[in-house]
Amino acid sequence: MPESMDDSKMTATPLTRVLGILGIVAGVLMAVLGLFISPPDVVQGEAVRMLYLHVPSIWIAYGSFVLTSVSSLLFLVRSRRREDGGRHYDRLAGSAAEVGVVFTGLTLITGMLWGKVTWGTYWQWDARLTTTVLLFVTYLGYLALRRLPADPIVRGRRAAVMALISFINVPIVHYSVDWWRTLHQKASLSVGRRPEITGEMYWTLLYSALTVTIVGAWLIVHRYRVIRLEEIRDEENLKMLISSRGHERPTGSAADGEVS
Amino acid sequence: MSEVATVAIGWGLTFVVIATYSFWVVRRGRTIGRELGIGEVQQSGQEQESDLSADT
Amino acid sequence: MDLTPRHEIEETEDVRQLIHRRRRWAILAISVLLIAAVAFVTAQGLRNATLFFRNVDEAIDQRADLGTSRFRIQGRVIPSSVQGEAGVTTFQIVHECAVAAVRHTGDPPELFESPWIPVVLEGRWVEGESKTVAGADSHYFRSDRMLVKHTNEYASANEGRVSEKPPAGFLDDCSFEVPVDSS
């Protein structure tokens, strides 16, 4: 089946394939560690296993949004010199933001489930939960802005500005539990404070974070390549439309022959 | 809802969401690539391949 | 996607605009939805987030101002004070050595059983004699909503049992003694 083999190579390279396999293996091991080997909590019982999903998810979301901001900044600088000025930064910003939104969504879902069994409610409008849902919505808006049709450089610059504005909320989300009174507990791990978490759980948490990082990296790389493909397609479509102007034959199926 | 059921739903949902998203990304890449005929290009020449992979 | 032009197109700019117009309404709809969502979330946040709860000591200090208005109160449950009958649970909560008697209607969350668990209760002050470990009080807190505010401390259930003692230092400066739960 040579054809399907070609297809499967579409956005993969040997390196990302290794990363992908590593991600799957690490994910399986994460499930074994998180669900079976790590102990139940003395107060929360089995519910503590939500920790290994919830906390790494938001860490990766934070990381993705940092990547989005840095790339956006670099794009703003580079795109001043026009000719394809640093569009790979724009792509990286977009792919990282999308992955960040997925993991923020997962943080919210796992948090709600966890909240139901520990707090006794799915949702409360406390500072942490409110700012997190705001984070989710603003980056959704960022992704929507990226779809707004415009000249690629103009669109990229617009999106980059929005990315930088949206990022202001990231530290607010993180420190909301210190700045305001929240139902949500304080940060699980923070610099300069002894973690109040027993060894086995601590290592399972760190391992889960590593796993989610691998999966997130794989996703960002692939999404990046798909964005590149989307750009190529859009350019091809545009070229086609312009060239069909001269032919004056309104057939939609002319595409096949003209692309290559 | 019991603790165990919540944990099962949470983990199940997370893995399903990530798997679905990954699958969607890969499939979208394939679909667009096929539209553009890039699969063939990869066989005959290295131009598109390097364009797609060397950026990162 | 069918991008075949329906009209004769003269300039590249026209082509661009044609593509753009089709997606514009969708983008507009999404933007309106997102702005509405942000406005809603911000409104909710401003109303609730800044003062999500009052600690027991503050709630007692502000009792005159609070009157019969509804608010959230936070404190740790004194294990030996918990009594339950027919859907009503009575207990005492403590924070900064201030103690409030609570009369809660409804099923408490599962983790309420855990000794010295911090809880957030929704309800109001009600006039009525009550006795607490700190002495007599003229009011008690009538609550109909209980949330457990669990901490960021995690310990293996295999290693230790739940401690019946209050967290280290929590009651050190208090003038009263808390009886140890015999059960």
Question: Could you provide a short overview of the structure?
Answer:
By secondary structure, chain A is mainly α. Chain A has helices at residues 2-8, 14-37, 51-78, 87-118, 127-147, 152-167, 169-179, 199-247, 255-258. In chain A, helix 4 packs across helix 8 and helix 5 (127-147) runs antiparallel to helix 6 (152-167).
Secondary-structure map:
The complex is a heterotrimer of chains A (260), B (56) and C (183).
Chain A: H1 2-8, H2 14-37, H3 51-78, H4 87-118, H5 127-147, H6 152-167, H7 169-179, H8 199-247, H9 255-258
Helix pairs in contact in A: 2-8, 3-4, 3-6, 3-8, 4-5, 4-8, 5-6, 5-7
Chain B: H1 3-36, H2 38-44, H3 47-53
Chain C: H1 12-48, E1 54-55, H2 56-61, H3 63-66, E2 71-77, E3 83-85, E4 88-95, E5 98-105, E6 118-132, E7 135-148
Parallel strand pairs in C: 1-2, 5-7
Antiparallel strand pairs in C: 2-4, 2-6, 3-4, 4-5, 6-7
**Total domains of chain A, how many?**
1
Assess the beta-strand content of chain B as a share of residues.
Answer: under 5%
- Helix count of chain A equals 9
Low-pLDDT runs of 5+ residues of chain B are 40-56
- Amount of helix of chain A: over 70%
Query: Which range does the strand content of chain A fall in?
Result: under 5%
Describe this protein's structure.
- The complex is a heterotrimer of chains A (260), B (56) and C (183).
- Chain A has 260 residues and is mainly α.
- Chain A contains nine helices and no strands.
- Helix content of chain A is 74%, strand content 0%.
- The longest helix of chain A has 49 residues, at 199-247.
- In chain A, 46% of the residues are buried.
- Chain B is built from three helices and no strands.
- The N and C termini of chain B lie far apart (45 Å).
- Chain B is mostly helical.
- The longest helix of chain B is centred in the middle third of the chain and has 34 residues, at 3-36.
- Chain C has helices spanning 12-48, 56-61, 63-66, and strands spanning 54-55, 71-77, 83-85, 88-95, 98-105, 118-132, 135-148.
- Chain C has two domains: 9-50; 54-148, OB fold (Dihydrolipoamide Acetyltransferase, E2P) (Beta Barrel).
- Chain C is 26% helix and 31% strand.
- Chain C is elongated, with a radius of gyration of 27 Å.
- With 183 residues, chain C is α+β, with helices and mostly antiparallel strands.
- The model of chain C has no long low-confidence stretch (mean pLDDT 82).
- Chains in contact: A-B, A-C.
